[in-house]
Design goal:
With 77 residues, this protein is mostly beta strands. 0% of the residues lie in helices and 35% in strands. It contains no helices and 6 strands.
Length: 77
Amino acid sequence: MIRHITTPTRIEAAGNKPKQIDEFIGRVNSGTDGVSIAQMNSPGGWLEPGQTPHFDEYTLVLEGCLHVATRDGAIQV
């Protein structure tokens, strides 16, 4: 089935500062449980609680630096 998604849905983010998440593909905007594709704009110093999502999540950093900490270590992208 072909589905044309023309606009994202704005999702409220947890964290210490306001963060903009616009989901194109995912549970909220398209009813897709297995993956989340969203554009996020985070202010400097933004932090969120640790998560273990039940879907695949990918991050593409277009500008700035993202510090990611996991159980296995940390990386800056």
